[in-house]
């Protein structure tokens, strides 16, 4: 069951099921709701009308790729062990259990040049194997068609290589503009990639929604940029939202991309891209 955060609840003083309030220098305070996208929208609890009054403006969506637009196929555990070694990987696993962990790309940047090259070659090998099994995530095509019908911009930020992005575009007949791969530095969760896309679009981050399957990378990137954030959690691996800290708490949580359609309809005023001649 997806979780929705309604930014209007603080104004309307609507009672929230979970009283945590997000407060950060990057985005306005938002109030967390529990709701079912297939049945009752979070706005019902505030307005009783099935939608949220005074919807927030939205001009663009930015997606993660692996695990969001495409089905996860890379064995990240095996890749981490190959890059880090068993001992460091075991320490990473122990740290991750308590909320920490190693960011593999940032870890590689701390290595000497020869070790960096070896590590990138290992990652490229695993990613290359994943290209052969590349599959689009259920609901992705329908969501993209909907955005196109509404003339809403869509961009992409991934820590995967450019070859994977190019193949994704070619294989599924989709194009995300801009589409930033790991050749763009700095990587997520730094907000720079998202801010770069907003600059190209010439729209404020506060009118953009970042969607991804990682709290640490996608949600944090979006929050730091000042965008709305949506966590895609297909398997429920992130558990109850009462365990989230404010720095990783998304505005919305869904279990399928199909649920994003209702989220957009119920919570946002979609502003189409102006056509140039």
Automatic annotation (TrEMBL):
Coiled coil: none annotated. Keywords: Hydrolase, Signal. One of its GO terms (cellular component) is chloroplast. Pfam families: Hydrolase. It comes from the Eukaryota. GO terms for molecular function: hydrolase activity. Gene3D superfamilies: 1.10.260.80, HAD superfamily/HAD-like (3.40.50.1000). Residues 1-16 form the signal peptide. NCBIfam families: HAD-SF-IA-v1. PANTHER family: HALOACID DEHALOGENASE-LIKE HYDROLASE, SUPERFAMILY HYDROLASE, PUTATIVE (AFU_ORTHOLOGUE AFUA_4G13290)-RELATED. This is Haloacid dehalogenase-like hydrolase domain-containing protein. It comes from Canna indica (Indian-shot).
């Amino acid at each position: 069951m997806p979780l929705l955060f309604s930014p209007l609840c603080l104004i309307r003083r609507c009672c929230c099921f979970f009283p945590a309030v997000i407060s950060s220098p990057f985005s306005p305070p938002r109030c967390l709701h529990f709701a079912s996208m297939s049945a009752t929208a979070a706005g019902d609890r505030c307005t009783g009308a099935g939608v949220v009054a005074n919807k927030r403006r939205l001009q663009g969506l930015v997606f993660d790729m692996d695990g969001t637009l495409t089905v996860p196929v890379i064995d990240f555990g095996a890749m981490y062990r190959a890059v880090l070694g068993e001992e460091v990987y075991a320490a990473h696993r122990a740290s991750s259990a308590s909320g920490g962990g190693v960011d593999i790309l940032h870890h590689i940047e701390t290595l000497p040049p020869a070790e960096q090259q070896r590590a990138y070659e290992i990652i490229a090998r695993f990613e290359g194997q994943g290209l052969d099994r590349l599959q689009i995530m259920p609901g992705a095509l329908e969501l993209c068609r909907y955005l196109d019908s509404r003339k809403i911009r869509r961009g992409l930020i991934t820590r995967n290589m450019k070859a994977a992005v190019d193949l994704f575009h070619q294989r599924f007949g989709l194009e995300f503009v801009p589409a930033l791969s790991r050749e763009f530095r700095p990587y997520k969760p730094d907000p720079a990639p998202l801010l770069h896309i907003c600059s190209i679009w010439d729209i404020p981050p506060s009118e953009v929604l970042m969607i991804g399957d990682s709290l640490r990378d996608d949600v944090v990137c979006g929050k730091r940029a000042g965008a709305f954030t949506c966590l895609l959690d297909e398997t429920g691996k992130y558990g109850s939202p009462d365990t989230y800290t404010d720095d990783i708490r998304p505005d919305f949580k869904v279990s399928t991309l199909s649920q994003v359609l209702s989220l957009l309809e119920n919570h946002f005023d979609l502003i189409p891209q102006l056509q140039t001649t």
